[in-house]
């Protein structure tokens, strides 16, 4: 089997580091370079967390130079929305398929990438959550929303997280909105005595974001009806939990020539 040539953007980050280790333990993956905003000209294995010879690859700060020199098949981005968008666009323009875990993309970003995939005849996967259990929680939430119109999403993350609500919560709300009868929840005359008490409003349903040290990534989707509640809950206790989804996405993006937003679209 030919190896998949991979570049990782954000290799020193919490997720990027796990993705680098994933390439080290996956026989058909080959890390061929990384993209950082510093350390140009160094080799990744010169840095403390990556001393294995498997990580003797160049560090680039210029994406175009990186793509021209190492010619990857796939670029995995785990950075920030601003750079994630720039990396995904540039990769597609070079015929390289992006797998993006970075969250915080706007609908305009998604539309732009969708058009670029079509123009370049290349796939791109944007996965707000790579944990397979979290994807199932989202799928089950959509199923439950056919029967329950009242729902609140409570997402809980570590306190280093930049975006709120989480990409997972937004995606869950979007999936629910596809099937839920439109409804403004709560009492029609309810008033917040402290601003934000009822959370963010998405199509009349509420999203609550909790940020605490000690947490990694967690979500509860709570449905209510007369005399009953149904709670769907997922917890990631470490970042290795995301890596089977990253491996799956890399294998799938090679077969794709369109934008895939969410692993639920390719998980049967
Ligand atoms: N899809 C998922 O399953 C999933 C899981 C966890 C986190 N995330 C998302 O992934 C992203 C990263 O999360 P994290 O916890 O690893 O954050 P982090 O802050 O630990 O890592 C981000 C890394 O990006 C690097 N970076 C910033 N600008 C860069 C640039 N221009 N070029 C190259 N590297 C650059 C930073 O140096 C940093 O190391 C966030 O958007 C987060 O929401 C997604
Ligand atoms: O740690 C993060 O940041 C995470 N972000 C994703 C999101 O925004 O949904 C997925 C889980 C971890």
Summed up, what is this model?
The chain is α/β, with parallel strands linked by helices and 268 residues long. The chain has helices at residues 14-25, 63-70, 81-93, 107-120, 132-145, 167-179, 243-253, and strands spanning 4-9, 29-35, 59-60, 74-77, 97-100, 124-126, 150-157, 200-202, 205-211, 217-225, 228-236, 259-261.
Cα gyration radius (Å): 20 Å
Number of strands: 12
Give the class-level CATH name of the largest domain: Alpha Beta
Count the domains.
2
Q: What would you call the structural class?
A: alpha/beta
**Percent strand:** 15-25%
EC number: 1.17.1.8
InterPro entries: DapB_C, DapB_N, DapB_N_CS, DHDPR_bac, NAD(P)-bd_dom_sf
Binding site for (S)-2,3,4,5-tetrahydrodipicolinate: 158, 167-168
Protein name: 4-hydroxy-tetrahydrodipicolinate reductase
In words, what does this structure look like?
Strand 8 (200-202) and strand 9 form a beta hairpin. Helix 3 (81-93) runs parallel beside helix 4 and helix 5 runs parallel beside helix 6. The chain has 268 residues and is an alpha/beta fold. The protein is built from seven helices and twelve strands. The model has no long low-confidence stretch (mean pLDDT 97). The protein folds into two domains: 4-126 and 240-265, NAD(P)-binding Rossmann-like Domain (Rossmann fold, 3-Layer(aba) Sandwich); 132-237, Dihydrodipicolinate Reductase, domain 2 (2-Layer Sandwich). The longest helix has 14 residues, at 107-120. The chain binds nicotinamide-adenine-dinucleotide and the ligand O=C(O)C1=N[C@H](C(=O)O)CCC1. Ligand LLHOTIJI is lined by residues 103, 128-129, 157, 161, 166-168, 217. The ligand O=C(O)C1=N[C@H](C(=O)O)CCC1 binds at residues 103, 128-129, 157, 161, 166-168, 217. Residues 4-130 form the Dihydrodipicolinate reductase N-terminal domain.
């Amino acid at each position: 089997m030919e190896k998949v040539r991979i570049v990782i953007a954000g290799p020193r980050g919490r997720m990027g580091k796990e993705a680098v280790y994933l390439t080290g333990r996956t026989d058909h993956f080959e890390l061929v370079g990384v993209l950082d905003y510093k350390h140009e000209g160094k080799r990744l294995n010169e840095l403390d967390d990556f001393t294995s010879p498997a990580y003797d690859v160049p560090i680039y700060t210029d994406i175009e130079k990186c793509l021209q020199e190492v010619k990857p098949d796939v670029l995995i981005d785990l950075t920030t929305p601003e750079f994630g968008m720039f990396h995904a666009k540039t990769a597609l323009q070079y015929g390289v398929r992006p797998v993006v875990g970075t969250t915080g993309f706007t609908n305009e970003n998604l539309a732009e990438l969708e058009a670029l995939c079509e123009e370049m005849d290349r796939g791109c996967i944007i996965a707000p959550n790579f944990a397979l259990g979290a994807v199932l929680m989202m799928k089950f939430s959509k199923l439950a929303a056919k029967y329950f119109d009242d729902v609140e999403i409570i997402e809980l993350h570590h306190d280093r997280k930049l975006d709120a609500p989480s990409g997972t919560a937004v995606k869950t709300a979007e999936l629910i909105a596809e099937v839920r009868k439109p409804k403004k929840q709560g009492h029609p005359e309810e008033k917040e005595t402290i601003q934000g008490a009822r959370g963010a409003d998405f199509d009349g349903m509420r999203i609550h974001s909790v940020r605490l040290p000690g947490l990694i990534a967690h979500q509860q989707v709570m449905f209510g009806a007369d005399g009953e509640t149904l709670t769907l809950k997922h917890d990631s206790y470490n970042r290795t939990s995301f890596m089977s989804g990253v491996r799956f996405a890399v294998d799938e993006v090679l077969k794709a020539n369109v934008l895939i937003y969410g692993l639920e679209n390719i998980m049967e």
